[in-house]
Each structure stands twice: as C-alpha cells, then as structure tokens.
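User: Can you help me understand a structure? I only have the sequence.
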Amino acid sequence: MQVEVPGRQANVPGVHPAWLPLDAFRAAGTRRVLVLADDSEVAGTVRAEVADACERHGGAVVAPGAAGDLVLALSTAGDLPPAVQALRGQEPGPEGFVLGRRDGVTVVLADDPAGLLYGWFEVVRRGAAAFGTDWPAEVHRPALRRRMLDHWDNIDVHPVMGQVERGYSGGSIFWRDGVPHEDLTRVRAYGRLLAATGVNAVAINNVNVHATEARLLTDRLAEVAAIAAELRPYGIRVHLSVNFASPIALGGLDSADPLDESVRAWWARTTERVYETIPDFGGYVVKADSEGQPGPFAYGRSHADGANMLADALAPHGGVVHWRAFVYDHRQDWRDRSTDRARAAHDHFAPLDGLFRDNAILQVKYGPMDFQAREPISPVIAAMPATRLAVELQVTQEYTGQQRHVCYLGPMWSEVLGFRFWGPGERTVAEVAARGGLVAVSNVGDDPYWTGHPLAQANLYAFGRLAWAPELDPAAILDEWIGLTFPGGDDLVRGTLHEIMDGSWATYERYTAPLGVGFMVRPGHHYGPDVDGYEYTPWGTYHFADRDGVGVDRTRATGTGYTGQYPAPWSEVYESRSECPDELLLFFHHVPYEHVLQSGTTVIQHIYDTHFAGAEEAAGMRRAWEKLAGSVDPALYARVRERLDEQVRCAEEWRDQVNTYFLRKSGVPDAHGRRIC
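Assistant: Let's start by predicting it. Here is the structure, written out as tokens:
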C-alpha cells in the first residue's frame, strides 16, 4: 500500500490510501481537463492533482482555448469557455464552488482556489457520474465556516497518555520521542485526505499542554512552521494549543493575569513573532481552569477576560482563539447529590454571553459530560446567542470502542447537528454554530491504516462531510466512503459494509451504559466495563444505582435543576419522567427498576434485553465480515477480523458485567430466563 502525493511524487510506503486510492481518480483522469486559475499555492495543488490523475489514467491537461471534458476555473480568470460562462451569475462564495454539466462539459467554477480544490474533489467523489448526462448548476458552500480537527499529540511520550492522548492509532504523525519526524511526507498526505472531505484547519498539539509542547510557541516554532508548510497546499491552516501560563513558563514573568499590561504585551509580542514565521497561522486553542490546567481564575478573572486577552493579541493578524468550555469541578464529593458536573459549563459561561471578542470562539462539547455514546445536547449551545460558538465532537473513539470496536458515528453527529433547541422549525445546532464552526478530536496516528481500525476511517471522513454539509444523510456519506475506499467493490462488499456499519452506533450503545446514564468504564484508560469504576471518585460521573433504582435526578423539582438550563420545550420534556425520551431517561431521572418505559418494557428488562441483543449483534458483525474473505485486501481483512474478535469478546464482557450488576442490585430476574453470570 502507498499514498501518492500529487505535485511531489512522494510515497508513503506501507500506508493505506484511505478514501483516495489511485482508482478513485480514474473517471476524472481519463478526461481532457482545462484548469484556469491563478498562481497561488492552492491553485498549484489543483494543477498538480489534475496532472497526476491524467498522467496515471491516460487523460490530458489541455491549454486555454482547447476543448475540454472537464473545466476547473476561477471566476476571475479571463477568456472563460462558454460552458463556464453559462455558470456566471451564481455566487459560490468563500471556499464554495458551482458544479454543473452542459453540452457535454463538466464545470467547476469557484471564487477562490480553495473552492476550486474542493470542487475537484467533488468531481473525484462522483466518479463516472460526474460525466454522464447534463445537469443544471449546483452551488456548494460550506455550512460551517471553520471545519477543524484537534490533535491531542504530545512531543514527548507522556508517562500515562503516551505519544497521543486518547490515541488509538499508534504514535503521532508529527513527532516521535521528543523530536519532529524527519520526513513529513505523511503530513502532506494527511492534509490531502482532509481537504478531500472539506476540513480547513488543524490544531496540531494536545490541549493539555505539557512543558515541552508549550515551547512550540517560542523556541520550537520552526516545527509548527514545517507542519504548516505541508498542510498549506491543501488549504489547511495550522492552529496551536497554548498554555495559559506561558508568560510565566516561557517569558520569565511572575504573573499570567490577563488584565496585567506586561502579560498582555508579552502575548502581543509573542503572537507577532508567530505570524512573522507563519503568516497564515490560524490561532490558539486553550484549555484553562479545567482538570488542573492553569487559567484566569488564579487572578480572580473570568473566562471572557482570559479569552479576550488572547483574542486581542491575535486580532491584528486575523487569528482566532478557541476557548474550550470544558470546565468543571473534578474534585467533587460523590456523596453530595446537589453537585452536578453536567451543570458546570452552563453555570460558568452562560452569564458571560456578549462579553467575548468577535474573534474569540467558545468551543463547546456537544454534550454536557464527556463524549459519551448517548448524552443530551449541551444547553450552552442555546444559551449564548451573542457569542461565536464552535461545537466539539470526538472522532477518536475514547468512549465508543477506542477503534477496537466498529462504531460509525455519522448517525450520532447527524442527530447532534440537526437538533432544534426551540422546537420544530427553529434553528439547528449546525445553524447556531455556523460562525464558530465544527471541531473534532482527531483519530489519526502513524498506524498503517491511519485510524487503527480500517473501518474507523469512515468516522474521519464523515466528520469532514458533515462539517461541510450537516444535512447530508449519514448512510449516504458511508456509501460515499465505501465507494471511494473500496473502488471496484461489488455489491457484496458494499452491502456487507452497510450491514456491519449502518447500525453500529446503536449496537455499541446497547451493550454498554444504558438509557443515557453514561460512563461505567474502567477508570483511567476508559476501555471495557466497570460499572462502579467511577461511582465513588471525585470526577462527577455517577449513576447512583442502589437497591431501589438507578439514574441521576437532574430535575428542577427534586434534583440538581439541570433541566432548567434548557429552553422550552426541552426544559419541560426532560423534566417529565413520562415525556423524557427513553434513551435519556437515566441521565435526567432516578427511577425504580420496574419503571415502565415508553417502549412498554421496564428499565431492568430493557437493560437485560439490550445487553443480550448488543452482544449478539457484535457477533453478527463478525459473521458478516467473514463473507468478505477473498473480496478485500487480505491484510485489511485480517486487521478488521482481529478487531471484530476483540469487539465480540468485549461486548460479551459488557453484557455479563452490566447484567450481573443490575441483577444483584435489583433482585429482579430476567423475564426470559436467560443465564446471567
């Protein structure tokens, strides 16, 4: 396996091409292609992509004035052919493009080189269908302005978290054992994969900024510049996670007070040097006053004070600061049921709405807890209309199987992005976040398959596609990924992958924590079941199961009051036991085991039924995959089979531990008489 990087003819030996194998370019590469663009670096990438595809597949790059089957043109180019002229008047906008086919010519028209690049990859995605019968012009514009991946990569190998925190795909593609990779060819190949999905920004280091990583801002800035140089040709801007206390750690000051003029001056000077080195630098990512990271609270200042200091330093250069809203008390008393981790982000940030600079983006996890397989949507997203918000997802599968389990997350993210806080017809989460963007923690490492589990590539692909167009059907996105990644695959391959992956999120949810209660994982590494693992710790991740019932009372009437953070109608829906959706019941309510769900079954029977069913479905995935022996690459087949073996084993472990735990707690037997350990 190898990745071909157009324009450099550089190979990455032994690395899977993911959704850009050579055959994916066959339909476009057999055509006569005309490119009318400027001399920018991204436009040069388009030319190189086209030239490489045509050279490999027998097509030709034609000169202006010659006839072409495919024309990629900037709207500012002169002497546009008639087929392109017919699309004039359409407004693609920043990064957008117009795509159409007329008189046998397929046309991509864009206002900027990034749009031209995205248009090229849309043609590649459509394959032969891009050159069929004529169709009217379509305007493609990104729905979210910033489509960003956060890497939790470390320079040094952390004694607990390793080279990549919550990384399940090997080491970092940027660093190894304290130094940058000498050959960054793979970084450019990564940028190419991301551009093909519409991603336009990458933060390259861990939000938990350790001592070595903090120096990327100053004396190790050349490493950031080298990475930026590899990603820039694909329209991707580099961002950097920074330590709020950098003026002390790096600048020799005795304070990091955001209102101290010497501190503000230090950030201004340091940021100016960053832009002198990397003129298109994107900005900073900050985790502050959370899980031990330093922040403005030490000086009696607010999160808005901290974010605005950095925003002011970045503003003259066009940069932004992403200030994470993941702030909560991680030293709770587990006996105190009035304290609620779910409330924390809203309690901290909602009162600050309107106080953040326009180039400060509040980055909010999609749920109030921590990337669980099922959570309600964070009420912070609805509570700050005067603040630019970015919604944060997790592509790396920390709580969804760690790339050892098949768990296609497109359906989950589609639900999140389409959620309407104020009821039918009102704005969606995606529309609220349009100015801030969509951000996700990357699942990529130096594994030959990029994502450890080959099928986990689909999550990375789906993130980019949904960040560009949140209304896309996740099943259709999966179908795109299958068609690109397994070119020439027959109906057996396509049908089997859909059989395994379409419902895999629901399967994972069935055999893990039930009805929205969350966690129940082994502390520390978060893999595998441990029902009481976090129950008596300071982390605030409780289920409160006892002999009488299970769940967290977050109602206004008798609980923590968390339901009151939602606008109507959801504040009332979640407050009510009878109206609360079954899948979130235990997140919002403590109920008896024999409480009857809307589905008609009791809570305890639901727990038994779903855990038996989930384990059976995992075994069914493995049986389905066995049908593809001989139909896919043998090495890929073996890797997936090995992961499915582990998924089946782990699903059975989840089934047995959860069912046994609740049988012993409740004393209620399984109505179907199945064996529970």
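Now, to help you interpret it: The CA atoms of residues 604 and 668 lie 7 Å apart. The longest strand covers residues 388-394. Let me know which part you'd like to focus on.
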